[in-house]
Structures are given as structure tokens and as C-alpha cells.
Design a protein that fits this description.
The longest helix is centred in the first third of the chain and has 53 residues, at 151-203. This protein has 541 residues and is mostly helical. The radius of gyration is 23 Å and the shape is globular. It contains 23 helices and no strands. Helix 13 runs parallel beside helix 23.
Length: 541
């Protein structure tokens, strides 16, 4: 990269750091830190959800997976995201929001008892630190192959950027993160579009891509890469893979407090639903570009030893000076956005659901703010422990998919069954035990168990079904069905005090006259999912 490129990378991101630091000075209370004062507009939360979701791992990992397996990845990045977002926004998270909780784990105590609350925190720490590790690896690939940094210097730069982003996230909390994400998201979108249209012109559009892949690989292999319904890289049919990705995305929006924390920061239920519709729409838009660029790379760079290298190689070989700097700046921005979001969310879980719930129950607000800010750094640094595991996987996506099916899917099922049914409070432990036992068996026993029982996408269906069946059967055996939600925390402790400080929940900004038809979230949700379904089943199937 040239001095101009480095100037763009450093200038854009230093501007975001500076502005975020100014905003962080306004955070003084626990409600401000954890929920952004609970008055954030839906569009700001939607952009923040997008910026946190579309990270450097997506640019590198999804392009790598598409390079290897074809457009089957679009089932997750476009269609699955739409389904998962709607399930979270219209079925699960509103119940949590109405319960007046600060974290998604806190809701599980109200519904199933304290043990499930603690388990949820531990699962989320495992889940989101693993996600952060994929981002670090992706950024390392870009810095070594585009910026041509020495491996050690690249890792030092990544750690430095991570700590800088974590500093203002730890200081300012949710509102500061959301404002910074608005700036970072703008850089990310600009960089993605510039790169995509540059590569699109290089390959000659879809017609050029189809012709080139057919000539290189033959008609059958080209069709496999470009049409979801004709893929054959998995031992499961395409329909099962679509269902698997929908479960992955639903788990992402329900179990992942990085996103539910943002949803809790809005002023009304209408804002909550509209923020998810806006956020998933942006994620799906970006997912289309990140998924399709991998097959373009298969045309231009057909002989890569590792598929995950396709994105940095496209940037390095096909972008001019200045434009290259903007794309790398977008990669850095996306990594920063996700690291800050993950760090703050995991810190909130640790502080409220473990530290204040079990260790120090009744200290002053400033004590818990200090704990939250300190824990933010610890959670982010913990993510680097996952790096060796993902480096040993065939692709980053393959490694991540394997990890998430073990614990995240059973926990997602507990949320769904808990919200949609009247199962017994103790049934959650039964379901989790069965679901995670299956997950470990499928992960470790894939070589000697039947493929139809362990294949990585089939595993999501088995995990969901086994967990739900365990909960329903356990509830039937236990007979009595207690009250659905009961608050059990100490009325005199800090947790209870902070809940009483929450602003009154509204149904919508139009309390008296009702929501106008053109602003109804369900209409926009149907429109968004319909567009994704047409793209998946009508264009790429």
C-alpha cells in the first residue's frame, strides 16, 4: 500500500476514535452505559446492528466459503438473516423488552431460574469470543496480503486497534458504540460497493462469470457454484442447508446479546421491530455483495491454496492506490465495530448476570460501571485464544459453524420454547443437557456416526429438535406448569435499583392515533423477506 492508502486508513479510523471519545464523556449512569438511556432511534440502532454484524470476518470468511462452495452461502447471508431477524424482533425479544430486563440472560432467570441464566452467559462468552477471533484472523490476512505487513507487526497492529476501540466502548457504553457504528458503517458500505463494482467489471458481469467458470471448470461445476439448488459440496440437500442457515441466523439474533443489547436501547416496541427490519435489510444487502464476490474471485484467481485468501488477493491485485486504502479502512472499521460491540455486550452479561447477581450485590453505580469497563477489555482479549483453532480449520466459516452448533443452538431453542409455550421452569435444564450432549457427540463423533446424524448443517436441525423434545417431555413428566415469568432478584440490590430507573416502555411513538399503515413493521418485514426469497429461490436456486 502507498502512503496515500495508509493516510486514508489511519485518517478515517482516527476520526471515528476521536468522535467516539467525545461522545463517551456523556455516559454517567448504568442505564446510559447498558441501554444508551433507552431512547435511541430505530435507524441508529439498525445501522449499529449492521455495523456489528458485517465484520471483517464476513468479508474474508464468506468470500472464502463462496470461492470454495459456491453461492450456497447466500442462504445464510441473505435469506437466513431475514428469517432470524424477524423471529427475534417479532417473537422473542419483545417479551424480554416488556419484562424490563437489561440482558437476554436475565430473562432466562425470570422464565427458568438462575442456573439457566448463568449457563447462558457462559455460552455467549464462548460463542462471541469465537466470533471475534474470526475477525482478527480476517484482518490479519488483509494486513499481511494487502498491506504486506510482517506477520508479527500485523498481529501487534490488530491488538492495538482492538484495545483502542475497546477503550471508547468501555468508557461510553451502548450509545457511544451506536454513534461510532454509524460512522464506521458508512465507511464499510462505501468500501464494499467500490470493490464489488471494480471486480464486477473485471469479470464481465454475470454473463462473463458464467462463461469463464464454464470454460475453466465445465458446465456442471460452474452450475454448482452459481446455483444454490445444484450444490453438492455437502452431504445434506440444499433445503436442509437453507434450514440450517436459518437456525444459525436465528441463534445469532436471539442468543447473541451483542444484538439484543442494541434492541433493548430503543424507546418503544415499534422502534425495536423497525430497528431489526432496518438492520437486517442492510445486512442482507451487504451479504449479497460479500457472497457473490467469492465466485468472481474463482474466475480471476482460480488456483488459491486457501480459499480465505480470495478477498485480500482481490483487493491487492485489482484496486488502485487510494481505493485500496478505502477498502482496507472499511475492513479495519468493520473489525473495530464488531470488537467494540462484542466486548460491551459480554461485559454487560458478566457484570449484571454473574458479578452483581452472585458476587457483589449491592454496591454503588460507579462500582459496577468500573467493573463493566474493566470486563470489556478482558472479554475482547479472551477472543484471541480461539485463533489457533480457526487457523487449523479448512475455512474460517467451516470452523465457526462447527463450534456454534454445540451450545448456541440448544440455548436458542430454550429461548424459543420458553417464549412460545408454557413449559415447566425446570425443563430448560433437561433440554439443554440433551441438546448439548448431542452437539458434542456430533462434533467429536463425526467420523464413526452416520453422516445424516452429524453433517454440520443437519446437526442444527437435530440439535433444535432434540432440545425442544427434551423440554416438552420434561415438562410433561414434571406435570405442573408454573407461572411463565417470575421476578426473583433481591428488591434491595443494585440490579433491582437499576431496573426501577428504566424509562416507561411505550408501544410506539404514535401512542394515541396508532401506527400509520406505511410505518407498520410487519409490512416492511414481509417485504424484506420476500425480496430475499425471490433472490434465493427465484434467481440463484
Amino acid at each position: 500500500m502507498t502512503p496515500l492508502d495508509w493516510t486514508i486508513v489511519l485518517g478515517l479510523n482516527l476520526f471515528v476514535f476521536g468522535y467516539a471519545a467525545l461522545c463517551a464523556r456523556k455516559t454517567n449512569t448504568d442505564v446510559d452505559w447498558f441501554l444508551g438511556g433507552r431512547n435511541l432511534p430505530f435507524w441508529l440502532v439498525g445501522v449499529s446492528m449492521f455495523a456489528t454484524s458485517v465484520d471483517g470476518g464476513e468479508y474474508v470468511a464468506i468470500n472464502g466459503a463462496t470461492y470454495q462452495d459456491g453461492l450456497i452461502m447466500i442462504t445464510g447471508t441473505v435469506f437466513g438473516v431475514g428469517i432470524g431477524g424477524v423471529v427475534a424482533a417479532f417473537l422473542v425479544v419483545p417479551r424480554m423488552y416488556q419484562a424490563g430486563v437489561f440482558t437476554n440472560a436475565e430473562y432466562l432467570e425470570l422464565r427458568f431460574g438462575p442456573a439457566i441464566r448463568i449457563i447462558s452467559v457462559l455460552v455467549q462468552i464462548q460463542y462471541r469470543t469465537a466470533a471475534a477471533a474470526t475477525i482478527a484472523i480476517a484482518l490479519h490476512l488483509v494486513l499481511t496480503e494487502v498491506a504486506h505487513l510482517n506477520t508479527i507487526y500485523a498481529w501487534l497492529l490488530i491488538v492495538g486497534l482492538t484495545l483502542a476501540a475497546t477503550l471508547y466502548a468501555a468508557w461510553g457504553g451502548l450509545k457511544t458504540i451506536a454513534i461510532a457504528d454509524l460512522l464506521l458503517g458508512s465507511v464499510m458500505i462505501s468500501a464494499t460497493l467500490l470493490l464489488w463494482f471494480t471486480i464486477w467489471n473485471e469479470v464481465g458481469g454475470w454473463s462473463g462469470t458464467t462463461a469463464s467458470l464454464t470454460e475453466q471448470l465445465g458446465e456442471a461445476e460452474a452450475s454448482r457454484l452459481l446455483h444454490v439448488g445444484r450444490q453438492n459440496t455437502s452431504d445434506s440437500p440444499a433445503v436442509v442447508i437453507v434450514m440450517g442457515w436459518c437456525l444459525i441466523a436465528t441463534g445469532y439474533f436471539v442468543v447473541n446479546h451483542t444484538q439484543t443489547m442494541k434492541m433493548f436501547g430503543v424507546a418503544s416496541l415499534w422502534d425495536l421491530k423497525m430497528s431489526v427490519v432496518a438492520g437486517t435489510g442492510l445486512i442482507m444487502f451487504s451479504g449479497y455483495f460479500s457472497s457473490t464476490m467469492g465466485v468472481f474471485g474463482r474466475v480471476l484467481l482460480p488456483d488459491l491454496e486457501r480459499a480465505d485468501r480470495v478477498f485480500p488477493q482481490l483487493v491487492d491485485q485489482y484496486l488502485a492506490s487510494g481505493v485500496k486504502g478505502l477498502v482496507v479502512a472499511g475492513m479495519v472499521a468493520s473489525a473495530i465495530s464488531t470488537f467494540e460491540g462484542i466486548g460491551a455486550a459480554l461485559s454487560a452479561l458478566f457484570t449484571r448476570d454473574i458479578y452483581a447477581r452472585l458476587i457483589v450485590k449491592n454496591a454503588a453505580d460507579r462500582h459496577y460501571l468500573l467493573v463493566s469497563r474493566t470486563a470489556t477489555f478482558g472479554c475482547v482479549l479472551l477472543s484471541f485464544a480461539w485463533v489457533p483453532f480457526f487457523l487449523s480449520a479448512p475455512t474460517i466459516v467451516d470452523g465457526f459453524v462447527r463450534v456454534t452448533s454445540v451450545f448456541v443452538t440448544p440455548l436458542m431453542t430454550v429461548y424459543l420454547v420458553g417464549v412460545l409455550t408454557q413449559v415447566h421452569r425446570r425443563s430448560a435444564l433437561i433440554g439443554l443437557l440433551l441438546g448439548t450432549s448431542y452437539g458434542m457427540l456430533a462434533w467429536q463423533g463425526a467420523e464413526w456416526l452416520p453422516v445424516w446424524f452429524t453433517e454440520k448443517f443437519t446437526a442444527y436441525l437435530w440439535s433444535t429438535g432434540i432440545t425442544a423434545t427434551g423440554m416438552l417431555m420434561g415438562s410433561w413428566v414434571l406435570k405442573e406448569v408454573p407461572e411463565t415469568v417470575t421476578r426473583s432478584t433481591d428488591d434491595q440490590g443494585w440490579l433491582a435499583r437499576s431496573q426501577r430507573a428504566l424509562s416507561e416502555m411505550k408501544s410506539s411513538p404514535w401512542e394515541k392515533e396508532g401506527v400509520p399503515w406505511f410505518a407498520r413493521p410487519e409490512y416492511w418485514a414481509v417485504l424484506t423477506i420476500s425480496a430475499a426469497a425471490i433472490l434465493l429461490f427465484g434467481v440463484f436456486w
